[in-house]
Write a sequence for this structure.
């Protein structure tokens, strides 16, 4: 009899905390999110991805761009199927991440194919020309981290072959611009390097202007 009581008590506690999590999410996360993005998952289903931190600290300093509005916190993702009220928390934690509101350092990369999901990119400044991008996507209601990161100067994009493209600038190189392409492997949640091309400053500038 005692065992039965403990069992029902455990079920009650688990249900209570689950309801509390969803209530917190529905009432607070969508409103308190620093970023809310609309992305397509691996099955073509539309989701809202919320990027938030329970506690943030505002700072006006950021590498190479003083005066930007920057928030530092332990950020997480929560995902919500569009048209549904339920918001699911994820286990992803980005501790001490500096989100730059001015430069919008968390943003979506839209795919051109029905066979691939949109990418959520979380970027960090490496130097004044270069950012480091951490990549995520939604798969059947789960937030998946891509195992590889990318470096870039111009925001990544998908080309007509649905390869992910990055443009990097190095002012010390003879051919200062470099275009790199990658393919997304959903089975291994990784990027595979497909190739690169180098361009002079003037050639790269033309590509940059039409990017």
């Amino acid at each position: 009899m005692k065992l039965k009581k403990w069992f029902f008590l455990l079920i009650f506690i688990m249900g209570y905390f689950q309801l509390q999590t969803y209530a917190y999410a529905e009432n607070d996360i969508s409103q308190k999110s620093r970023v809310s993005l609309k992305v397509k998952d691996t099955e073509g289903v539309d989701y809202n991805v919320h990027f938030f931190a329970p506690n943030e600290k505002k700072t006006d300093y950021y590498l190479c761009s003083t005066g930007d509005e920057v928030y530092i916190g332990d950020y997480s993702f929560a995902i919500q199927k569009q048209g549904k009220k339920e918001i699911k928390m994820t286990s992803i934690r980005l501790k001490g991440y500096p989100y730059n509101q001015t430069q919008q350092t968390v943003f979506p990369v839209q795919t051109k194919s029905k066979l691939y999901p949109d990418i959520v990119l979380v970027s960090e400044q490496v130097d004044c020309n270069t950012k480091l991008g951490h990549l995520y996507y939604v798969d059947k209601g789960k937030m998946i981290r891509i195992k590889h990161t990318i470096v870039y100067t111009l925001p990544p994009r998908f080309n007509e072959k649905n390869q992910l493209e990055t443009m990097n600038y190095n002012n010390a190189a003879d051919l200062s611009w470099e275009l790199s392409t990658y393919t997304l492997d959903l089975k291994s949640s990784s990027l595979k390097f497909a190739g690169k091309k180098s361009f002079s400053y003037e050639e790269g500038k033309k590509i940059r202007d039409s990017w």
User: Anything to note?
Assistant: Confidence is low (pLDDT under 50) at residues 7-26. The longest strand covers residues 88-100. Residues 33-209 form one domain.
